Amino acid sequence: MNQKLHEKEKTLFVNCPKCRKLVEWATSSFRPFCSKRCQTLDQAGWASEEYQISSLPDESPPSEDIN
Ligand SMILES: [Zn+2]
């Protein structure tokens, strides 16, 4: 019996194609993007090549509300 298929179930991180931010693949809902913002921006970028991502307010939404 040799069932050593995937012993390395480490957390996979990818870089957001948009802002190069490190994204946790397993938990990101917008992978490979870090946020919906980047996802939307990227999709918008396909439509118009002149997207401007000069200075967006980097407000990170509260991901969890642990009490
Ligand atoms: Zn991003």
Write up this protein.
The chain is α+β, with helices and mostly antiparallel strands and 67 residues long. The chain has a domain at 13-47: Erythroid Transcription Factor GATA-1, Chain A (2-Layer Sandwich), CATH 3.30.50.10. Helix content is 18%, strand content 9%. It contains 1 helix and 2 strands. The protein has one helix at 36-47, and strands at residues 13-15, 22-24. A two-stranded antiparallel ribbon has the order 1-2. The longest helix has 12 residues, at 36-47. The protein is flat, with a radius of gyration of 16 Å. The protein starts with 12 loop residues before the first strand and ends in a 20-residue tail after the last helix. The mean pLDDT is 77. It binds zinc ion. Zinc ion (ZN) binds next to loops. Residues 16, 18-19, 21, 33-35, 38 line the site of zinc ion (ZN).
